[in-house]
């Protein structure tokens, strides 16, 4: 990201300077990351970016732009001079916008629209070739110079989010604008939805390319124009002169198959391996891979580590990585303005895309509105969020912490104050503020707290998903309400802990130890539950009730309506007050059904099954014989067979003999002489291949001769 529109007076100079420098010396940058669904531990796609600038206290605002209808000819007017007609209807979307005080549409950086399309924009790209985009030090007429009022990062997220029906549609919109109206900057934008992710790179005034991201790769861009696979035409959208322009400029490069190499053709070649590139490869694939990286053009997409088990937490923390654990590239933590998690970071975010969820719930936007080294990402179903907490409003973001009236500080200002305090309040053992020693003394306890807090949020998300799916299926407006309440609650709760730690750090007396937050010592965790916001709002669904077991019902020829107990959340419900019951198939032997339906504040239905079994018979007589016994019983009509079971009085094991339904007696032979035997009889009926058995009769005993 590059704050191009510092002022209208400086814009031309800034543009010229920026687009002629190499990627190795870019002062203001961002880092974009991508993890395909086949390389994550749970099958989600992860798309994210850290936003950096030289103005760390830059005003920023997390808000919602409501959907609207627009008259023909009504124009979108961006903060950088870009204009375009509004669509007849624009979508609602969340946005994290920078407040520059210029233009009708302020600088959006990240957001999600109501269709579940999410955009992160942008990663500013390394300098373009002078032959194509021009240079203040060159007399060569550029082949396709940047367009002063073209589409650039100030407006990309808003222009896409207000109209994109899908990630691909968003990429198509961008390519069309670049080709017809032009690009104001060289930028990389990532657009994602539940089905796919698209990476868009603007390369010159009227040339750009969009590529569908592969599911089995990881991606990293620290402000470097990258080569991408253009051979699969169905996964590529490009401007019509993408090849013609560098060909005319004499910079065209192709691979062995004749496919254009866009980085080689359009960008200045990096002369060294940037700190952030080395750190990213170290984090993603290990030190050996990072050390083997050579200066030059890179491929955005890389093969993953062999385990293919990247987690959401890893992706979140990658954007805070400063080289910890390495002795190379600022690993000590001192200053490290060139690290991924550098001192110029403004905010970071990761879209967690769940491909098995409804579009409105498929993207969870994890957002940190401050440097995430000492901060936390808050999740949100941003396709459904309709407003954010008051502390996000521009009026509260004074950029400088208000000591006299702390309650007037915005969410962002409080977290930035916490960040600066965690870097050290002054010299620490003769080490400068911002050193590793200072960060450890003041900030390590804060990091430990947010680590536990972050992991708890990730864990709780799974349970929240279950109820949000029910809410969305039940009522869309209720889903809007609950998604908004959850996001606001989590922001407010995290803000409360941040304020507490700011106050504690300001009052903390350095006794040679390490600051430990009270919240950490007390084991505080986020209350990411619906109970925290007054429940789900769903009617009480009796399908979730617990019903007592219904015993077998003996056939009598009349309809069976057994009683049972219904409990909901531990409360015993009252029949005909909280629910009604209807019965079906409840007269004949077989499987009967009781259907419970909620009423008067309870909703939904629940069915329970019970068995109707043949009528119980009784043993009429047992007559002993020599090593045998004859058993007779009362007849039961409409059955399949009888069963007679017998055992010696002291035995635990019964033997069973099946008897035809036409008979009411049977002789059991080969019994032991002089032993006393117990006998019982029951019947059964087979219905749809299932046996329904009566209870056993009472026992009759006899001593065998």
Description:
- With about 700 residues, the chain is an alpha+beta fold.
- It is built from 14 helices and 37 strands.
- Strands 3-8-9-10-11-12-13-16 form an eight-stranded antiparallel β-sheet.
- Strand 8 (about 95-100) and strand 9 form a beta hairpin.
- Helix 11 (about 410-420) packs parallel to helix 13 and helix 12 (about 435-475) runs antiparallel to helix 13.
- It is elongated and about 125 Å long.
- The termini are far apart.
- The model is unreliable at about 1-30 (pLDDT under 50).
Q: What's the gyration radius in Å?
A: 36 Å
Biggest β-sheet strands, sense, barrel = 8 strands, antiparallel
Q: Main sheet: which strands, in order across? A: 3-8-9-10-11-12-13-16
How helix-rich are the residues, as a percent range? Answer: 10-25%
The total of beta strands comes to 37
**Strand residues, percent:** 25-35%
Shape: elongated
SS content category: alpha+beta
State mean pLDDT (0 to 100 scale): 91
